[in-house]
Structure formats: C-alpha cells, structure tokens
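Bench notes, afternoon.
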Amino acid sequence: MSKAENTDHIWSRAEIESPCIKICVIEPKSRLCTGCLRSIDEIGAWSRMTPEVRAEIMADLPARAGQITKRRGGRAARLK
C-alpha cells in the first residue's frame, strides 16, 4: 500500500452533493441564488431531499440562468 492510499480515509467525506459555489445572494425578483441558481426553498430543503430529487434539480439549473436579472450598477458600470 502506498503512502497516499494509506491516508485516503482521512480525506474522504460523506457530504450531500450540492451545486453551491459559495456565492450566496438571492436575487429578489426570481428568488434564485445568483451563485447556484437554486430557489430559496430548494436551498432550505436540500439536506432533506433524496439524491434523485437533488439530481433532477441540478439537471435543471443551467436552464435557470436567464431568470436572473443582471445588475446594472456597481464597479463595471462606473468603469465604462
């Protein structure tokens, strides 16, 4: 057994699969997170969902990107 294989158990984690990218801001109009695109209700119930339901939601996330209103202010607008 190699040294790396001997420590694999230390780094293994049994976390629930999640699309979270740690940019947690809820867009008020759509009520979707601007980071992961889940709804506020989905985020709250995520740990209680079955793996199958989570997989269905994750498959739907790319289609939700158009539902988020783009911000018009901020640094990017000032630099134009």
